[in-house]
Request: fold
Amino acid sequence: MGLCNHHTVTRFLFKGFPIFKQDPKLHITQSRFDGVPVKLCQPRGDHTKHQRGILFFHGGIGIWSVLNIYERVCRYLARESASFVVSVEYRLAPEHPYPAQFEDCLKATIHLLKNAKEYGVDLDCIVISGDSSGATLAAAVCQELVNRTDLPKVRAQILLHPFLQAVDFNLPSYQQNAFAPMISKNIILKVGLKYLGKDWSLLQVAMKGSHVPEDMRIKWKTWINPDHIPKRFKSRGYKPAPPTPFSPKVLEQSNEFLDTTFSPLLAEDNIISQLPETYILTCEYDVLRDDGLLYKKRLEDAGIGVTWEHLEDAFHGIVFVLDIPVFPFSCATRKLDFVVKFIKGLHVSEESSLAGGVKAFTKGGGGL
Reply:
């Protein structure tokens, strides 16, 4: 009706998701990591055994506030994997333009890396994770930290159906799932343009790839190429898209598309080869499925250990229905059970597990 912004309405609707009751198995507090609001979630009980530290960046394409939804995810991960989970409440666009979201996530991560012992977290077992655009932020933060010799190394990254490139919007998954539930091709491009502060007039030319210079197209073809997608993922009517001419004007208007903080798949080999062990989850009915598949191949080619899970019966944003009885999608719980299994395989050091645990439980305000 033109009365308010689309993102304002969406945020209002998301806030209507169920309010949480106190969980007797968890201790939850609010705090700030270098000025960035965070929510800390840790199991009650024997805290000396809960030493993995997990930073979690929520999805929402950097615009939508979906903290109610993702608190269910963070509670599940903390409870089931016996880990200290930090949910980062980064600033949102368009009020806070890109790359404010990346800057907040980086700040919060560095704070935990520098102060892990204060929270009873094992310095050798800090994990960076995210869902959807939060997984984009997780991948970008991991890349930013690979050359930081003044900080502990990140143990692993967990990327749940991540957005990783803005070069090719005609990959098989973009064609097959253009009208899939939750996130369609149009929505992800429109909201992505708003996130970057760009006009929607760029929508059609971005879909065609007119923003990619020919020399870069040739270089990135070794990384972003439908030929790298296994044949079984092309069976639902994929047709190779015809090449489109490059437009310098379009590139000038959309150059942020090619930033590695927005498109982590474009990072150079010397960065990719230093990344930590990685968990990637993809869903069949998701426009972003192939981003995850291409990053998986890129990491494996660089010698990085990758654990990959694929949900044949799931769609993007399946966590939205986690623990909601009226939406009994078993794949939502199954998705997180895969993640929990991976986290539990990241063993903490015996020395770290005996120190600082009680501080982790009591630090940072009142419990919920």
